[in-house]
Structures are given as C-alpha cells and as structure tokens.
C-alpha cells in the first residue's frame, strides 16, 4: 500500500495525528459487540493458569513493555519480567514450562527480538507477539500473533505504533485480571467504556500542539534534557527521552523521580531543562516534591499535567502543558502525545530530518 503524508509536513506529524483513529480501530477489533469484554484468538493462553509473564522488545516497543509490567502486576496480580531483547537472548535465562513469553515489535523483523522469540520457542514457552506488520517473521513464528492495527508507520520515530501497542497490552492486562479473578464483569465493562472515550480525549491533547511547539523552541537551545516520571509515567519519560534523542540529536535521559537524589540531581542547573510528566494521580505529591528539589537548584521545569495537577503544583514552574483528565491507568497513552509533540517540534526547530534521522533505520534487522 502506498502511503502519503496526507497534507502533513512529515509522516511523523501525520502519524501523531492518526492516533485517535487507529486506537479506535484497535478497540473495535478487540472489544466484543456489546463492548463489555475482550475477544482474543482461541490460541491465546488463559492467564488464570499462568504464573509468570516474560515481556521482551527493543526501543520504543520495550518502553511499551515496561508500561505493561505496571498494568499486569497491579491490575492482574501477575508477575512480569521485562527485558530488552539484546540482553535477554544472551543471558540464557531459565524459561520454565508454561511460561508465556510476549514479544512486542512494530516491524516484526527486529533481529534481536526475533532471536529472543526463537530462544523462548525452543524452551517450549507459549510465544505471543504484539505486532503491527501481520505478515512479519515475528508474527509468523508466534503461537499467537495479536495485531495492533496502527496501519503503516513510515516515520523512523515510532508514534502511533507505541500507543496502539499500549492499547493492546492494556487490554491483555484487563483480560488477565478478569481471568485471574481480580476484576468482575462490571468492573471490566467500566474500564472498557473508559477506554472507548480515550480517542476523544486524545483529540484534546492533539489540540495542544501550539503550546508544545512554544516549549520546544526553548528545549531546542539545550544540550541535555532530563525527563522525570513516577509509576506509569516513568516508562513514558524514557520514551519521551528516546523520541527526543532520535530526531533532535539532543542528549536526553529519563529518571524515575525517586532516583533523582541518588545521583542525577548533581546535573541540575539552569541550562538543563527538566520535563516532568505528572498527572494528578496517587503519586503526584511525591513527584511535586522532587520537582521542587529541581527548582530549588535552579532547574527550569516543564510540567506536563492536568488541571488538578496544575492547581496543586505551586509556583516556580517555567512552562506547563495541560492535558485533559483521564483514568490513571490510561495516562501513559494520553501523555505519549505531548512527549511526541515536544520531540517533533524540537527537531523542527533544530532543522533535522524528522522522518529519516541520521544513523537510524526504521527496522533493525541486523544485530
Ligand atoms: C522508536 O522510535 C525507534 N525507532 C526504535 O527504538 C524501535 O522502536 C525499535 O527499533 C524496535 O522496533 P520494532 O518495534 O520494529 O521491533
């Protein structure tokens, strides 16, 4: 299929804008007709009989896996091991009978992820993949291949594939919670109905593009940028830092807010912008206190939060991006949008090749 930029300046901009639509597509694919349950292929193992889940991927797909660990463990009470494929495959980890090993890949051709999959298949694990390209090697070699339905992604920096991966992984965590007796039918139906309102909420976040662009003009002047988040916002902070590095060539790294005083706080000065991802959730106060430690040392903070968070954040924040309110567990999908917009506009301000950044390939088929 031929794809064009659909009136956008870059494929990346088009793919960011497509997210409400493609997430809607993924939801209509997986939700039952009455919208109260999740339909998975018959080959999919029942999570009730599973005692450990292994999640393996590279890059952005790996950050989707780290996010999913929080969901599976908290909602489904299912222990999760998560690793990058290049480490997992050579560590020769024990893989017990009955382990479900889940591989996430946009292209379905990433060499290290495929090798990790073959390692687990050899050990008689049940291999499940979450892929965008249905005819890919990873999909073909899986016992169960679950499509994310993001459509063709051209930009080297993954955007819509990431949020569609998150959507499918969240559905799996909910299904696991239901099968393991941690969610009753009504509670599941409620969560699915919240999920169905997500595309509309994402449209509101997309409409904040001009604010993100303003902040990005400032970020473009920096040599280093720090991203902070806690809980579900920690993997998202890592994804935000990766996105920025890939296309703007500015060094960025992410820390779990609670780790700040264990080292990285030594870096803080007025020249290194700090992006804090923090919806007003149960961990918000803790993140705010970390943010204040940054500001007390001259750090310039961009706070990405919601109305409630804004009201409670106090003074001293340099920039804010205000997101719509969303159920706590869905925040990573929503907050992916400002992370992408910040990276995109910073890259534009720096004049880099957004869709084809230097040194990178869309699909890494060699180690
Ligand atoms: C994301 O922006 C990157 N270009 C990269 O990290 C990518 O996610 C990684 O190479 C994995 O690719 P895959 O999903 O096709 O396996």
Automatic annotation (TrEMBL):
MF-aspect GO terms: carbohydrate derivative binding; glutamine-fructose-6-phosphate transaminase (isomerizing) activity
Compartments (UniProt record): Cytoplasm
Class in the EC hierarchy, top level: transferase
Annotated ranges, domain SIS: 43-182, 215-357
Keywords for this protein: Aminotransferase, Cytoplasm, Glutamine amidotransferase, Repeat, Transferase
EC number: 2.6.1.16
GO annotation, cellular component aspect: cytosol
One GO term (biological process): protein N-linked glycosylation
Catalytic activities: D-fructose 6-phosphate + L-glutamine = D-glucosamine 6-phosphate + L-glutamate
Membrane-spanning residues: none
Residues at the active site: 362
The protein's assembly and partners: Homodimer.
Function comment: Catalyzes the first step in hexosamine metabolism, converting fructose-6P into glucosamine-6P using glutamine as a nitrogen source.
Protein name as it appears in the record: Glutamine--fructose-6-phosphate aminotransferase [isomerizing]
The species this protein was found in: Lutimaribacter pacificus
Residue range from the parent sequence: 241 to 607 of 607
């Amino acid at each position: 299929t031929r794809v064009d930029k659909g009136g956008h300046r870059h494929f990346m901009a088009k793919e960011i804008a497509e997210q409400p639509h493609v997430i809607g597509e993924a939801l209509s694919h997986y939700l039952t007709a009455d919208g109260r349950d999740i339909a998975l292929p018959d080959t999919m193992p029942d999570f009730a009989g599973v005692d450990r889940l292994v999640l393996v991927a590279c890059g952005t797909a790996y950050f989707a896996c780290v996010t999913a660990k929080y969901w599976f463990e908290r909602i489904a009470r299912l222990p999760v091991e998560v690793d990058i494929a290049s480490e997992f495959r050579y560590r020769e980890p024990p893989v017990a009978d009955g382990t479900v090993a889940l591989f996430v890949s946009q292209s379905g051709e990433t060499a290290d992820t495929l090798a990790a999959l073959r390692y687990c298949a050899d050990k008689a694990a049940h291999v499940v993949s979450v892929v965008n390209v249905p005819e890919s090697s990873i999909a073909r070699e899986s016992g169960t291949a679950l499509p994310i339905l993001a459509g063709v992604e051209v930009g080297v920096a993954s955007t819509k594939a990431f949020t569609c991966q998150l959507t499918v992984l969240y559905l799996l965590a909910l299904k696991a919670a239901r099968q393991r007796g941690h969610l009753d039918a009504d509670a599941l139906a409620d969560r699915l109905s919240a999920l169905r309102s997500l595309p509309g909420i994402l449209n509101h976040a997309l409409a904040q593009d001009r604010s993100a662009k303003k902040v990005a003009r400032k970020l473009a002047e920096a040599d280093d940028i720090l991203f902070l988040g806690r809980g579900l916002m920690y993997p998202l902070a890592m994804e935000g830092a990766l996105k920025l590095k890939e296309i703007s060539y500015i060094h960025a790294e992410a820390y779990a807010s609670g780790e700040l005083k264990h080292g990285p706080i030594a870096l803080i000065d007025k020249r290194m912008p700090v992006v804090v991802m923090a919806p007003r959730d149960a961990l918000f106060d803790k993140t705010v206190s970390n943010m204040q430690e940054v500001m007390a040392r001259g750090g310039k903070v961009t706070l990405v939060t919601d109305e409630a968070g804004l009201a409670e954040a106090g003074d001293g924040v340099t920039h804010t991006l205000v997101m719509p309110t969303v159920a706590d567990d869905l925040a990573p999908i929503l907050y992916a949008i400002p992370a992408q917009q910040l990276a995109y506009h910073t890259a534009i301000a720096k004049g880099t090749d957004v869709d084809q950044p230097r040194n990178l390939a869309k699909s890494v088929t060699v180690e």
